[in-house]
Structure formats: C-alpha cells, structure tokens
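Appendix B. One record, verbatim.
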Amino acid sequence: MEKLKNSSLDPIKAVPGLCISDRVAASSPPELRSQNIRRILSVLQPHDILKPTTLAYDDNDVECSGGPAQIQFKSILIDDDPTIDILQHLGTACDWIQDGLQPMSKDGAEPPRGVLVHCRQGNSRSGAFVVAYTLSLVICPNDCFEKQLRVWEHCRYDIYLEVEEDAGSEGRRERKEKPAHKAWKARRDDLLTRGEGDVNRARDSSLANAAAALGRCRLEDLEIQAAE
C-alpha cells in the first residue's frame, strides 16, 4: 500500500512522452498535467477501470471526448493472471500508443503530447504493454507475460498472418494465427486442463517471480541513488 500513497507518473526514459503509473496517479489531474498526458491506456479488470469523468486540467474540462484539452481513453479489460492472452491486444495497443505520441504540429509550436499506460499497481500488466512498445527491460511483468512478449517478438510483432483464400474466393484474404501463438495457447490450455491446483501454483509462482524481479530492480535503484 505504500506505493499507492506515493503514486506518481513515471516517464519511460527511452521513449519521450510515454509514462507508466498505477490507478491512483492515473486519476490525478496534477500528475497528468505534469506530463501533458493526452491519452490514457488502462489495463485493468472491469471493476477497477478508470472512469473517463471530467478532470480539472489547466482550468479546462478534460473529458473522454471534445474540448481543446481532450484526453482520450482506451481500456483493455484483463486480469493480472498468467493464463490471460495479452498477445491479441498488443498490436492495437502499440499502434494506439504510437499514434498518441505523434506531435500535433510539425513546427513544434505545441508541447509534446504524453501517453500514460497504467494498471492497478503500475507494474505487471501496464509493464507488459510498455515493454511490448519499447522492447525495454526496465519493467517487471510477471514471467508468463514475459514469455508472451517473447512470442510477440518471435511473431515479428503481429500474431496474425494474412493469406489468400482458395481460388474461388475472388482473391480475398483472411487472417490466420501464426504457429507460435497457437503453440502458446496450446500450452496455456494444457495448464488449464490440469486442474485448479496446478493453475494456482503457476499463478503464485509467476507473481512471486515478478515481485522478486521488481524487488531487485528497486534495490539496484537504491544502490545507484546511494552511490550518487
């Protein structure tokens, strides 16, 4: 709970304008103002989702649509669970982040726009989507999400392959899943068939590894700060 008390937007140094946070910071007008956030990607369960209600922001009303100080919202409704298929969301999410980071004007007259990716705690789910966009190692998603990111990379950042249908289809194309994604889903389905005990053990192991990795990252940060 200490993290929630000191919630803030953390800029991703490798990608100017991209930030990550927990749910609390994502609803803080001062934090959003500090990074000029214009898009918010929420990766949460439905009951945790950030409601796009009006926010006080630079003396203007910021809503999900309309107005000069518009903030756009996108939600991906998933749990922090190792059996969740995040691969199906990565393509559209990365495109949405990329579009949001594009400058509004070519002459640079307007300040750069910011994009925020957040989940409940600002670590695993949001971290997985930020890693997918930046291919960075500074975030700590749970290890099952990390495995899916490797599949995403193996699939060259698109889990679907467009192929032409048979000769009688008048040249129409259809999307088919790539083998790597099918293989991951087969392993996931196999785990689910083993029963609740095996699923819970996999879930606990995954979250424990993510927590340990996050702890190592924080320790390294403290050691760097102490050295400075």
